[in-house]
Amino acid sequence: MFGCAGAVGDPLRAAQKALQNNSSESHTMTPSTSVNRRDVLRYGAATAAVVSGVAGAQMLATPAAGKDPRDFELEYRGKRIRGVHVGAQEVRSLARGRSRSHEVWINDRKLSVMEVDLPGATIGFISAINHYQPVLIDTDRNRGGLLELTKRAVDVLGDTELTALAGVGHEHGS
């Protein structure tokens, strides 16, 4: 039918012969046990479509490698806000080196986020806008900390926009 008798035809003929040989009453095939190329192609194509659809849905539902599920990108009070988390293990290892921290953007302008030492050997985070309101950011109780910090900054900004200097980081204590 499709010019692939050697590749597809032989297994189909073998399956048909097996069904014929297993029939106890007669050697003729009944409509309920017949297997033809059209059925194999139709059900094979349907199976392939379902399997590929399920696999595609799983890939879309699975976070990309390196992307933190706490990351966000949304609109808040008329401003587009975005936050990218550094992994919890990486924050602990970088805390003293202060080489990288979580990142925040408001209307595509970066807002500097800095680590500060809090009592009890805890690391808090502040931004260039809300220096006196540190938040905790972790994967447990404070998983929404970066979003909270960003929303606080938007609340302070009101209708104004960030300047280019808002993304310049600096150190706080050690």
Keywords:
single chain; 174 residues; alpha+beta; 4-stranded antiparallel sheet; two-stranded antiparallel ribbon; 6 strands; disordered N terminus
| Beta-strand residue fraction | 15-25%
Largest sheet: 4 strands, antiparallel
Mean pLDDT: 73
Termini separation: 77 Å
Q: Looking across the biggest beta sheet, what order are the strands in?
A: 1-2-3-4
- The number of helical runs is 4
Please provide the ordered H/E string of secondary-structure elements.
HHEEHEEEEH
Q: How many β strands by DSSP?
A: 6
Low-confidence stretches: 1-8, 57-63, 91-96
- Identify the overall geometry: elongated
Query: How much is the radius of gyration in Å?
Result: 30 Å
Helix content: 25-40%
Strand pairing plus helix content: what structural class?
alpha+beta
Quick take:
This protein has 174 residues and is of the alpha+beta class. 36% of the residues lie in helices and 17% in strands.
Verbal overview:
- It is a single chain.
- The chain is α+β, with helices and mostly antiparallel strands and 174 residues long.
- It is 36% helix and 17% strand.
- The strands form 2 sheets. A 4-stranded antiparallel beta sheet has the order 1-2-3-4, covered by helices on one side. The protein has a two-stranded antiparallel sheet with strand order 5-6.
- A hairpin with a 3-residue loop joins strand 5 (113-118) and strand 6 (122-127).
- The longest helix has 25 residues, at 37-61.
- The protein is elongated and about 85 Å long.
- The model is unreliable at 1-8, 57-63 and 91-96 (pLDDT under 50).
